[in-house]
Amino acid sequence: MRRNITKIVSQLGLAAGVALVAAGAAHATEGGSGAYLLGTRDSLAGIVPPPGSYLSVDVININGTAPFISIGGAVVANPSLDVWVTKVNFTHSFVGTYFGGGRLAITFTQPVVTGNMTFEGTVFNGIAGSFTDDDTGLGDTTITTSLGFDNKTSHWNFQVSLYVPTGYYEPARVTLHPPSFQVLSFGKNRVAIDPTVAYTYLNPKTGLEFTGALGVTFSAINTATDYKTAPEVHGEAVVMQHLKNGFAFGPAGYFYQQTGNDSGSGAAALQAAYGAKTLQARVFGAGPLLTYSTKVGNHSLSFKGKYTWEFGARRRFESNVAQATVAFGF
Fold it and tell me: Of 32, 44, 118, 137, which is most buried by a Cβ count within 10 Å?
């Protein structure tokens, strides 16, 4: 049984479980986005891959709208966002066992982001109008440490992700002649930490998989805007059917809920500008997931395609998200 599971995971390579995280598209925290990209932990997220090194590239397109957000110290209304995120991820899974028999892995993720935002009804030092901003820059670097345990068909993965504010960030600014507004930043200008637990049930005989993950993101204050994002609970679930030819398919979904109100003078300004009773945000997402895994010599190669429709959003962007991933194991 263990050999069969190891074979499946080895073929899937990086896609088999080390969750890769990065700053991405907008949520209803400051800047409309949280540090954690929702939906990152999907198929086999509870499994730490076999010892070795893995490289993967994610290309993600996110289109979203929201009633209003606070970004870079400015309050903007009716923003519409189109973002392309390219994440380069490197994972090393260590030989041997650690901390009670767990497999240890570490992942480094660096995103590059290209974004376009249009918005209107801007409220900033008395200036109002319609604007468009577009830019390209680095997102924040993420370091994720994973510890995995296995028991026949059950697998657990305990992770802690650290978001380092290395990405492009500038406070919002206005140019009057000609009129323009710079608001886009791809870094968060704050440290964040995200402890998460993931579980995968994988039956190598039937190919049936169930995976679930639950985490909480805790953010430090953005000192440039005096905005502190409240803790963000995020959960994901996926049911997959793995076929003998290497394909797997099934539905994937997630939810996001802040546990309290954002704080600091930046949050207070946003709340006052739109007369909101609270800035507490939530959203749900669901859609299909397709993967394919094979071997090239002794190396694993896998592909993933995913589409997610978000719904039920409150005080955050509601987006459609398309993702393609290729992963290679050394």
Answer: 44
CA–CA distances in Å: residue 90 to residues 15, 18, 156: 12, 10, 21
Q: Which fold has domain 2-329?
A: Porin (2.40.160)
At 271, is the secondary structure helix, strand, or coil?
helix
Q: Compute the distance between CA of residue 304 and CA of residue 261 in angstroms, rounded to an integer.
A: 36
Reported confidence tier of residue 99, pLDDT bands at 50, 70, 90: confident
Q: What is the residue type of 85?
A: V
Percent of the chain with pLDDT over 90: 58
Q: How far apart are CA 313 and CA 45, in angstroms?
A: 25
> Which of the pair, 64 or 154, is modelled with greater confidence?
154
E strand or H helix that includes residue 249: strand 247-258
For the chain, give the number of residues.
Answer: 330
| Tokens representing residue 25 in the block | 């598209």
Q: Kindly state the tokens that stand for 173.
A: 């600014």
The residue among 152, 145, 153, 218 whose CA lies nearest residue 188 is 218
DSSP 112: E
Q: pLDDT digit string (tens) for 141-190?
A: 999 999 999 999 999 999 999 999 999 888 777 666 666 677 778 888 99
Helix (H, G, I), strand (E, B) or coil at 245: coil
